[in-house]
Specification:
Strands 1-2-3-4-5 form a five-stranded mixed β-sheet, sandwiched between helices. It is globular and about 40 Å long. By secondary structure, the protein is an alpha+beta fold. The protein has helices at residues 3-21, 70-86, and strands at residues 25-33, 36-44, 47-56, 94-103, 108-114. Strand 3, helix 2 and strand 4 form a beta-alpha-beta unit. 30% of the residues lie in helices and 38% in strands. It has one domain: Trna Endonuclease, Chain: A, domain 1 (3-Layer(aba) Sandwich), CATH 3.40.1350.10.
């Protein structure tokens, strides 16, 4: 397994722990379908949040959240719709969040949670 994959998996675990510590219920992790993958699906109150997690070792090449392009965002919207269809979720309150993590795979230097900013 590549070091990049290990860092990404570590970041997703950190993000999941962060969400739980902040009152979210994690409904799904690493959900896949032919359209792609959703890192984390979580719920807080009546809102279902589809969370994209980006992890980098440093900001030398930009903040992790800068990697979320309009193309990636469009794919996330389609994935969210598919997840809702498959799981028969008809919530009116659905959003796409992102968590950007900078860290070395053992310690977090920074964590930035953007709530629904990609709508």
């Amino acid at each position: 397994m590549a070091l990049k994959d290990e860092l990404g998996r570590w970041g997703e675990n950190v993000a999941g722990d962060f969400l739980i510590a902040n009152g979210y219920d994690v409904l799904d992790r690493g959900w896949r379908c032919p359209l792609g993958e959703i890192d984390i699906v979580a719920r807080i109150d009546r809102t279902v949040s589809f969370v994209e997690v980006k992890t980098r070792r440093s900001v030398r090449y930009g903040h992790p959240l800068e990697a979320i392009t309009p193309t990636k965002l469009a794919r996330l919207r389609n994935l969210a719709g598919e997840w809702c269809r498959v799981h028969r979720v008809h919530s009116r309150s659905v959003r796409i969040d992102a968590i950007g993590i900078v860290g070395n795979g053992t310690a977090v230097d920074s964590l930035d949670h953007r709530i629904g900013v990609f709508e």
